[in-house]
Amino acid sequence: MNFSRSAQSAVIEFLRAEGEHASQIYRRMKEVYGDQCLAQCNIFRWCQRYEAGRVNIKDFPRPVQAHVVTISDTISAVDELIRQNRWITTREIAVELSISKGTVHHIIHKKRGYGKVCSQWVPKHLSGNQKTARIGVCLTQEFLH
Predict the structure, then answer these.
(1) What's the pTM value of the predicted model, to 2 decimals?
(2) What is the dihedral sign for C-alpha 68, 69, 70, 74?
(3) Phi then psi dihedrals of residue 52, to 5 deg
(4) Is 70 within 8 Å of 103 (Cβ atoms)?
(5) What is the pLDDT of residues 30-64, one digit of tens each?
(6) Can you tell me the distance from the alpha carbon of 60 to that of 70, in angstroms, rounded to the nearest whole number?
(7) Which residues contact 22 (CB under 8 A, 6 or more apart)?
(8) Extended strands (E) in the chain
(9) In this structure, are residues 106 and 132 in contact, taking their beta carbons and an 8 Å threshold?
């Protein structure tokens, strides 16, 4: 048996056209569909839609969260601001470039791979030279103690 949402919506539309009340439609559908039946509030909502003149049984598409759109100019501007001031905050960058904090966060963490260490932006992935310098600093610190 077809328990899809659109099939149940068609049943609601049919029974509503016959003049059934929403509570009676829910009881009848609960008998047929059991646990797979739409919730009572959804059935009442569909009945209201059909009373208001809706003719399409399919759900309208829901708005989705917009994807973060970043262009190379914005990425390079964020990178330049971070290189100028390692202590700059995402809020300050967002205000400076007139973009959202979410976009700034996406650029910093996903596109550029920066992370905060001691309130300072640093690359998460070190280059070969940076790794060698880090080893040298660690060895020097070890011999000093």
Answers:
(1) 0.42
(2) negative
(3) -80, -5
(4) yes
(5) 998 888 888 899 889 888 888 887 666 565 666 66
(6) 29
(7) 16, 43, 44, 47
(8) 114-117, 120-123
(9) no
Name the H helices within 37-127: 40-51, 72-84, 90-97, 101-106
Pairing of strands 120-123, 114-117: antiparallel
Are the C-beta atoms of residues 90 and 108 closer than 8 Å to each other?
yes
User: CB-based contacts of 96: which residues, under 8 Å, 6+ apart?
Assistant: 81
Look at the chain and count its residues.
145
CA distances for 56 relative to 13, 20, 21, 60, 76, angstroms: 10, 19, 20, 9, 47
User: In this predicted model, what pLDDT tens digit does every residue of 20-36 receive, in sequence order?
Assistant: 999 999 999 999 888 88
Q: Which of 31, 111, 21, 39 is nearest to 75 (CA)?
A: 111
Rounded distance, CA 44 to CA 19, Å? Answer: 14
